[in-house]
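Appendix B, Record 12. Input sequence as logged:
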Amino acid sequence: MRAKVTHLAPATPLYYRFLAGSDASPVGTTKTAPPVTSTAPVRFAWFTCQDWSVNHWGAMSLMAAESLDFIVHLGDYVYETVGASFQTGAAEPAHAAIRFPDGTRLADGSTYATTLADYRTLYRTY
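Logged structural output:
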C-alpha cells in the first residue's frame, strides 16, 4: 500500500509509523523540505551495506545524532544469507544473531532465506 501526501508546509516536522496486521513500527520522524526560497545550507548523509550480522550499523547512530535535512540509502539493506564467508564478524550483544525459521543450509555452513517466514524475520530484524 502507498500513501501519497501532498500540500504539506515546508520545513515542518512529521511523525509516522507503519501497521501491518498486529505489528506496529516504532514512531519515526521526518520533516518536509525547506522552502524553495531558502538559502540555508542543506545537510545530508548517505550510507550503504548495513549488514546486521557483521555490525555495520555505526552510521545509523551517528546520523541519528545529527540534525540532517535528508538521508540517502544507496542499497544493500537486507542480506538474505547468514553465516557466509563475507560475514566474518560476530553480532554484538545488542544484535542477536539472525535465525531463520526455515532457511536453506549451504555446503559452506551458511544459510539463506527461502520462505516468506524467513524474509519476514529479516525485515523485522533489520
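Residues 13-125 form one domain.
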